[in-house]
Amino acid sequence: MAEVRNPRGVSRQVLFVTLWLTLLVLAIKVWAGWATRSLSLLAEALHTVIDSFSTVLSLVAVAAPHRISGREVWGHGQLETTLALLLSAVLGFACFSLLGLSVQQLGATQALPALLPVKMSLPLIGLLTIVFLASLGLAYFQKRLAKTLESTALRVNANHVLQDAWLTLVVLIGLIGIWRGYRWLDPLMAITMVLTAVVSCWRVFNWQLPMMIRQTAIAPEAISQLVRQVQGVTTCYQIQSRGIVGRQVLIEMRLVLHPEFIGATQWIMEQIEATIREHYGPVHVLMKIDDDRDELHPSDHKLRSQNPSRELDWN
């Protein structure tokens, strides 16, 4: 496949389209669940809500202006924090409500007339089948594109969409069983979907969201101590690091070199990166070399490793 000139732009466009398609799928599931009185379909829609949140996180990450081009080290601010809190509130209310209704319906199995009847029809099953196939196709398209663009944002989002597609298939099979008279399947599947939604939400908060938090991954003092051990380094300052230690960390710093070692700048840079990697695992280091006589001279130049093997991808 031909090389893409603007992978970030392509990723952003794909995620934007994915977001709108996910919201459309969510609207269809909520409408279908309300029209059929199916608790399991409404519970499965919670996964689509989580997918929408994940897509927004990926979209904000790809569009982040401070992100190094082609590297999946992100940051986020008040928008994502507010969305996370809003998602927690909505999911908490919806999960408790659906669990309560499902337990009540399961307790009423000895008196079937007390159950809220699920109104299934063949056209509705056909519509949900189309939704499943569309979600499955979108997920595999994103996976293929993520591999081509080397985009973790697309890969993470594709995994969420794929998981939601398979859960839609499970619910679809259960609804067919309900249509044939096994009405106890609806509350049972609803409880299962609620529990899996909680697990899925926890994974987003515990894995994807921390990947985007612009926080200090490694103490500046620890990095400074390692860097000053490299021969030729006079001092280092303005040290910033973010990411997850052991997975990938982006480190930025300013250096002042001894005048006698100015000609060995590239060698010093490689030694610094190797030393940090030895202690903290995969890292991507950006260094700005300052003149010893004027540390803030406008002619400062940025350097980074020219060895591709040292720059490990998130994939």
UniProtKB/TrEMBL annotation:
It is a multi-pass membrane protein. One of its GO terms (biological process) is intracellular zinc ion homeostasis. Residues 221-290 form the Cation efflux protein cytoplasmic domain. GO terms for molecular function: cadmium ion transmembrane transporter activity; ferrous iron transmembrane transporter activity; zinc efflux antiporter activity. Residues 296-315 are annotated as: Disordered. Gene3D superfamilies: Cation efflux protein transmembrane domain (1.20.1510.10), Cation efflux protein, cytoplasmic domain (3.30.70.1350). SUPFAM superfamilies: Cation efflux protein transmembrane domain-like. Its main location: membrane. The chain crosses the membrane at residues 14-35, 41-62, 83-101, 121-141, 161-182, 188-205. Pfam families: Cation_efflux, ZT_dimer. It comes from the Bacteria. It is found in: Membrane. Residues 15-205 form the Cation efflux protein transmembrane domain. Keywords: Membrane, Transmembrane, Transmembrane helix, Transport. One of its GO terms (cellular component) is plasma membrane. Belongs to the cation diffusion facilitator (CDF) transporter (TC 2.A.4) family. This is Cation transporter.
